[in-house]
């Protein structure tokens, strides 16, 4: 196996059971020592470091969080900082920062024990522990495999948000190609015996699978799977008219009629949407803080696949988009998403034709070469990846 992982990217290792993806991951932090070949981080062979010292510089997140049951949340997160000799004040500050980053209120959760947490909360703490010492490289072994589908989607979205802030080099093992497409900047597809079938971007894997194995592994519906590669942040959404709880309904309807608007978004006192309603259907004197029907909202980080799914459940053929704290961002319509998909497809086709004309031998990693893997902490400017 021979591959190189650029700094600041998320690379997903995916393949059938027994293909060696977890074994490959564990060689990076020397939980398993390679029998031959070289693995380097920032150009330095990992064999030159003591195994314990190496692991303290590499984050490690596994399925279920694997928290120490006799330790509080704070103590679990502080394990590696403690081994590195951080003082108490610095460690406490870091613990609170990380709990806030993964969506857990430090005041409520720092002193709890793992048994007092849900599965999703335990996994969040596991992610925080992996980030505790601010390592440049983080390894994840099926981190979201032990939670329900709804929680898994939320954790995936949170991971994407955290990665946008921190830009760590993340290597993540998964058996789920859809998860790999959603989270990865690049995907390494392995077959039995650790053979690299394709190492490429999600877009290229969907648009141009390297062989029949990759095509079968990705499965049918590659065009639909590509919806998981774009997010609402990438789409120019509409800023639909809004009204506030307590506004005069007569004024709202008069303004809507004058401007030719049919639907309005009702916001509460904190700017969060509570209803998306036809203005003419409002009744009473004042707009109330009450949902008249199930309100479909999606986070701005959601994929277009998630957005379209929400639209199918909406009576408006559109969906309200919210920010990270639930605040109103706008309304995404089916037509806006279809326009974005068409533009993206045309751009991908143009890039693919250009790549075919200038293809290099390094565009796809070659299997069965010497076992040399390089994980760079610092990307070299201008270097061809």
UniProtKB/TrEMBL annotation:
<keyword id="KW-0129">CBS domain</keyword>
<dbReference type="GO" id="GO:0015418">
    <property type="term" value="F:ABC-type quaternary ammonium compound transporting activity"/>
</dbReference>
<keyword id="KW-0547">Nucleotide-binding</keyword>
<dbReference type="GO" id="GO:0016887">
    <property type="term" value="F:ATP hydrolysis activity"/>
</dbReference>
<dbReference type="InterPro" id="IPR017871">
    <property type="entry name" value="ABC_transporter-like_CS"/>
</dbReference>
<keyword id="KW-0067">ATP-binding</keyword>
<protein>
    <recommendedName>
        <fullName>ABC-type quaternary amine transporter</fullName>
        <ecNumber>7.6.2.9</ecNumber>
    </recommendedName>
</protein>
<dbReference type="InterPro" id="IPR046342">
    <property type="entry name" value="CBS_dom_sf"/>
</dbReference>
<dbReference type="InterPro" id="IPR003439">
    <property type="entry name" value="ABC_transporter-like_ATP-bd"/>
</dbReference>
<dbReference type="GO" id="GO:0005524">
    <property type="term" value="F:ATP binding"/>
</dbReference>
<feature type="domain" description="CBS">
    <location>
        <begin position="290"/>
        <end position="349"/>
    </location>
</feature>
<dbReference type="Pfam" id="PF00005">
    <property type="entry name" value="ABC_tran"/>
</dbReference>
<comment type="similarity">
    <text>Belongs to the ABC transporter superfamily.</text>
</comment>
<dbReference type="InterPro" id="IPR003593">
    <property type="entry name" value="AAA+_ATPase"/>
</dbReference>
<dbReference type="InterPro" id="IPR027417">
    <property type="entry name" value="P-loop_NTPase"/>
</dbReference>
<feature type="compositionally biased region" description="Basic and acidic residues">
    <location>
        <begin position="343"/>
        <end position="356"/>
    </location>
</feature>
<feature type="region of interest" description="Disordered">
    <location>
        <begin position="343"/>
        <end position="385"/>
    </location>
</feature>
<dbReference type="InterPro" id="IPR000644">
    <property type="entry name" value="CBS_dom"/>
</dbReference>
<keyword id="KW-0813">Transport</keyword>
<feature type="domain" description="ABC transporter">
    <location>
        <begin position="1"/>
        <end position="218"/>
    </location>
</feature>
